[in-house]
Structures are given as C-alpha cells and as structure tokens.
Amino acid sequence: MDKVIYMDNAATTAVKPEVVETMLPYFTEGYANPSSVYSFAQGVKNDMEQARETIANLLGAAKSNEIYFTGGGSESDNWALKATAEAFRDKGNHIITTKIEHHAILHTCEYLEKHGFEVTYLDVDEYGLVDPKEFEAAIKDTTILASIMFANNEIGTIEPIKELGAIAHSKGVLFHTDAVQAFAHVPINVQEMNIDMLSASGHKFHGPKGIGFLYLSNKVKIKSFIHGGSQERSKRAGTHNVPGIIGMAKAAVIAHENMSENIAKTEKIRDHIIDRVLAEIPYSRVNGDRTKRLPGNVHFCFRYIEGESMLIMLDQKGICGSSGSACTSGSLDPSHVLLAIGLPHEIAHGSLRLSITEDTTLEEADYVVDELKEIVKRLRSMSPLYEDFIKSL
Questions:
Q1: Nearest-CA neighbor of 59 among 253, 262, 267?
Q2: Cα-based distances in Å from 340 to 100, 130, 155, 239
Q3: pTM for the complete prediction?
Q4: Catalytic residue among 109, 301, 320, 327
Q5: Sheet strand arrangement including 143-147
Q6: pLDDT tens-place string over residues 135-163
Q7: Secondary-structure breakdown of the chain: helix, strand, coil percentages, each rounded to the nearest 5
Q8: Contact 180, 73 (CB under 8 A)
Q9: In angstroms, rounded to a whole number, what is the distance separating the alpha carbons of residues 309 and 371?
Q10: For residue 365, what pLDDT is reported?
Q11: pLDDT tens string 301-342
Q12: Cα radius of gyration rounded to whole Å, the chain
C-alpha cells in the first residue's frame, strides 16, 4: 500500500476541506481585528460571536458568554486550575485529580503544590476508571476543585463524569474536565453532566491547530489568565485568532451533525482491529475499558516488544501510530497511564496506540493488523527474553 495509513488522530487530525474553505475569507477579506470599532471590524466580530454561540449550543451551555477562546487545550487546562486555585484560596487549598491525567493537568498541579496547594491524585482501576466512592471519600472541607478528564488520551477510557460532577456539587466543590479527546467525538452536555469548566482543542476534531476554548460557567467567578487587553470579556488578553475560531466552530458543527453515524462506523473498525490483534498476536493485551471507550481509540501492549522499535518499523510500512501521548514522545520512561492501571514497566514499554476516525477503512485496518503481526513476530525473534520465555513453556 503506497499511501500513508494515518492512525494517530489522537495526536492531531487533518483539517476537513469544508473547514479550510470556511476559514479562508478571514485571512484575505474579513481580516479586520474584531476588537476595533469600525463597521468592517464589527462584521468580523459578529461572525466570531456566532461561532461562540454555535459552540455553546453544541455543548449545552446556558449562555454563549460561557465560552472563552484560548490557544488550545493546555492553555484551557492551565487557566481552569490556576485561576480557580487563586480565586478560592481563602476557602481552601485542596484539589483532586487523577494519576492518569494529561500532563497539562499533572504539571499544573505540581506547580500549584509548590505554591501552597495540596493535591490528591486518585488511583484508577485496571481499566483506567475512577471509583466514584473513592472520589467522594477524598473530598475534604478544604477541597475547592476537582479536575477529572472526560476520556483518557492514551487508553481511551471514558470516565463517569456525570456521577463525579454530581458528587462534587453535593459537596460544594467546583468540577472541571479536560475534554480535549472527547468533545465532538461523544455527546457532552455540560449542564446535564454537572460540569463547571471544560477544556477543548480544535485540532482534535478536524479543526485547525492553535485554537481551543474553555467553557466557564457564569456561576464560577475566576480572574483572567493572560493579561494585556480587554478581549474575551477582559479574561483572556490577545488578538483573536478569527480564522481559527471560525474553523473550530465549523469543525464542531460537522462532527455533531454526523456524530451518531461516525461513532457507529468508527467503533466497528476499532473493534475489528482489537478482535483481530487479540486473536492473532499472542501475548498481547488491550488497554482501557472495552465498552466505556472513545470510538476511535485502540491501545495495546505486546510482551517482549519495545514500543519505539515497533513504531519505526510501522513507519517503514507507511503506518503512523504512537506509543502514547504526542506531548511526551521521546521520553524513555513508560507511560504514567499504563503504570497507573497496574502494568509493570517491561509490559508498559511495549505499547501501541492507534487512533482512527470515521474515514478509516476496513482495508486500512486489515493492512495495519497484517503488518503489525509480522513486525511483532520479527522483533520477538530478536529478543533473548522472548526466546527464554518460549523455552520455559
């Protein structure tokens, strides 16, 4: 197969042609700064505010002014945690999160710990799920915020967000979720699911890079994160990325219009890959929950295999995959997510994430599995550990 088989959509997605077409006029025609007062700029501002309203409606937000445009998911995560910690310091200094969060959350929590805050990192079970009872037990009188990711970026497990949010609210605790991997892929309604703050990023659902948003309920009173201007109701300074905003809203609309169909199609291909690998490649395991899972997430560990070698050999066959989060690629340490679900280092090192979309075909899926079988077989043939294991049987 001559073309590239792209199965790393959790890292980023291709921008849909319709999205590019929608964005183009804002580079060359409607290029005015929406913060300017003249009518040329106000027309651009109106289009931007329509995009804001579109995203708010898709998210089930009460009002469009609860959507704040940011530079992406990491900025949204940082803003939610740091600004909430600062705003509610007088009430308490305790924050709850999990051991499997994206590093945008984990590193922010580490920063806050150095500035006088206490952070509880919840364990997860072997599938990556948070236990609501353990979550409730971790809440203290000093707890001001809980941040639990909607779906894990590595193993794809979807958390019981609605239940966790209800528990947080019953205790007077604000609830944030990193939904970077979930928004526009699975249904989300912030009001129904007891979410006070939510982070998302456009490039994860066929929108442009460098644009995201933070849903911030009007009930939550926190201060600005970036200072220097009055944009975003004086909470996030900086000239608006209008083409990005318009493109992100368009991509979100396309995703939601076709969500049920896309989920069904993607899950069928996903499960086909998982079933074939487990049946045809010995000493392999799928990570994450089989049903409470993102539609396009496939994640394996192969014993006696080094993940980096596998990725290089897949690349030689035109296949793009990953061993985990793109934000930690190049790290020699095993995934913190895999260690948190109880895998030993030697197994965690042999991981492979394939993330697909509704555009992935059955032919591509079978090609990848066929090549993967041969690659695993070849790498194991060079492994003295695998040879010793086989002799011990």
A1: 253
A2: 7, 11, 11, 40
A3: 0.96
A4: 327
A5: 67-70, 212-216, 197-201, 174-178, 143-147, 94-98, 118-122
A6: 999 999 999 999 999 999 999 999 999 99
A7: 45, 15, 40
A8: yes
A9: 14
A10: 98
A11: 999 999 999 999 999 999 999 986 554 445 567 899 999 999
A12: 22
CB 2 within 8 A of CB 318: yes
Q: C-alpha 227: how far from its chain's center?
A: 26
Specify the DSSP class assigned to residue 326.
G
For residue 15, give the nearest of 205, 175, 148 by alpha carbon: 205
| Closest of 104, 84, 103, 87 to residue 95, by C-alpha | 84
327 classed as catalytic: yes
Distance CA 56, CA 376 (A): 46
**Are 367 and 5 contacting, i.e. CB atoms less than 8 angstroms apart?**
yes
Are the beta carbons of 85 and 197 closer than 8 angstroms?
A: no
What is the reported pLDDT for 45? 97
What is the chain's length?
Answer: 393
Type of residue at 264 = A
What does DSSP say about strands 174-178 and 284-286: parallel, antiparallel, or unpaired? unpaired
Give whole-number Cα distances, 315 to 5, 8, 166, in Å.
Answer: 9, 12, 44
Q: Which amino acid is at 379?
A: L
Section 257-284 average pLDDT: 98
CB atoms within 10 A of CB 239: 10
Residue 360 in tokens: 């992935």
Averaged confidence pLDDT in the chain: 96
- What are the φ and ψ backbone dihedral angles of 64, each rounded to 5 degrees? -70, -25
